[in-house]
Design brief:
With 91 residues, the chain is mainly α. Helices cover 67% and strands 0% of the residues. The longest helix has 20 residues. The protein starts with 8 loop residues before the first helix and ends in a 10-residue tail after the last helix.
């Protein structure tokens, strides 16, 4: 895919300086920035699963929301009162 992006002169100057500092051309630097900012396909599947779980449990019922909040606060208080340390055996 080929894209043409028009940058204001100040952004273009900063882009050229940043690319030069990294020893790459501006197009390569922009390509790397875009690639790094895109979600990993495996992460996308996990995020979609989390979104589905959230949508499945969504509610507008104020009493249900209050109950869930109270449950969370109790869990958090118990975790803070009883910290857990994990021991991972050496392999």
């Amino acid at each position: 895919m080929t894209l043409t992006i028009e940058f204001p002169p100040d952004v273009e100057s900063r882009l050229e300086q940043a690319a030069q500092a990294r020893g790459v051309d501006p197009a390569g630097y922009v390509r790397r920035l875009v690639e790094e900012s895109l979600p990993d396909p495996e992460d996308a599947a996990t995020l979609a699963l989390f979104a589905a779980w959230e949508a499945d449990g969504a509610t507008d019922d104020p009493m249900e929301r209050a109950a869930r909040r109270a449950e969370w606060e109790e869990l958090r208080a118990n975790l803070e009162a009883n910290p857990v340390s994990l021991r991972i055996p050496a392999v």
